Amino acid sequence: MDSMEKGANMMPEQTLSDEEQRILRRLARQALEAAVHKLPMPQIDTNEMTSRLQELGASFVTLTIQGMLRGCVGTLEPYQSLADDVREHAVASGLQDYRFPPVRAEELNLIEIEISRLTLPQPLMYTTPETLVEMLRPGIDGVVLRDGMRRATFLPQVWEKLPDPVEFLEHLCAKMGVDPGLWRRKKLEVLVYQVEEFHE
């Protein structure tokens, strides 16, 4: 548990300022609106790009309408600047989430954007299904399950709708495309991460 406790403290000392969060929210909104209207991606004002916004960063962008999910796409591992990552996944959430039709122009004023900035996922070492359930921290940990080439994740925010760890794992297995009870019968690779979440 020591390594997990350490992981939980990774984000606060590097949290984004209110201004940095505001910039990312605006970039996400501008990118989404441009993509929906089939316009070129707006230029980024380099003068407002702080070092944190230019550093490699991993994010998920979630779109909702009146609290209902409208799209959610992101990455678990950083491969581009945080600013570019947020813009890319704002567009992908609106147009490329296979669970939903592309966002229409008339929906833009209804959509609320939520951004989750991720810590790097860390392996969770467990021995039995029972210990896995005990080690998960509802409301704190995002969870990744891997089984061979299959992979799925739930952000920490999903705990609000699935507060029971058993139910959480079952739904995550289903999202991965396997039997919901597979985590009980087979030792899956499990990783956990935390997020800094902010929204419009």
Protein model, in words:
By secondary structure, the protein is of the alpha+beta class. It folds into two domains: 7-119, 2-Layer Sandwich (Glycoprotein, Type 4 Pilin); 121-198, Hypothetical protein ph0010, domain 2 (Dna Ligase, domain 1, 2-Layer Sandwich), CATH 3.30.1490. The chain is 34% helix and 22% strand. It has helices at residues 2-8, 18-36, 51-54, 82-95, 129-135, 165-176, 182-185; strands spanning 59-65, 68-74, 111-118, 122-123, 142-147, 150-154, 189-193, 195-199. The strands form two sheets. It has a four-stranded antiparallel sheet, with helices on one face. Helix 2 crosses helix 4 (82-95). The protein is globular. The two termini are 34 Å apart. Mean pLDDT is 92; it is low at 1-13.
